[in-house]
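A reminder from the course coordinator: this example appears on the midterm review sheet, so study it carefully.

Given structure:
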């Protein structure tokens, strides 16, 4: 099970790297004018989203494997799973926002994306505290 745990940590870390960086690209996209810079940012964000989606799926797969393998229960785990559901929703919402950028239908400014970018940081902090401290 230590191999499973290792791969879970590797994939979660990689997934979060993408969840931290993609909204930062959105900040720049929201400020970019039409042209080469916007096209480059769209390409970068598309490739990043396409890259981290299977990584996120692998993080979830190894997490479920750990959960079933160890039979982990407790209120802290229920809260953690709820936060993971929020992370998955955040991930797919990023994909929806990316589609809006591609269609030229972005409705948010760069300041909104700066705040939006903080959501995965807060969720990561909560998950790490739940898993490490198990306060519930």
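Designed residues:
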């Amino acid at each position: 099970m230590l191999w499973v745990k290792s791969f879970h940590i590797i994939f979660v870390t990689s997934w979060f790297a993408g969840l931290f960086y993609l909204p930062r690209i959105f900040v720049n996209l929201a400020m970019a004018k039409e042209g080469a810079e916007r096209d480059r940012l769209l390409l970068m964000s598309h490739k990043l989203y396409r890259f981290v989606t299977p990584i996120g799926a692998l993080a979830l797969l190894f997490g479920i494997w750990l959960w079933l393998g160890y039979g982990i229960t407790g209120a802290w785990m229920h809260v953690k799973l709820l936060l993971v559901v929020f992370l998955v929703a955040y991930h797919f919402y990023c994909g929806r926002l990316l589609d809006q950028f591609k269609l030229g239908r972005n409705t948010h400014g760069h300041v909104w994306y700066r705040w939006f970018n903080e959501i995965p940081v807060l969720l990561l902090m909560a998950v790490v505290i739940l898993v490490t401290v198990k306060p519930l």
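Residues 36-70 form the longest helix (35 residues). The helical segments are 2-31, 36-70, 75-102, 110-116, 119-133.
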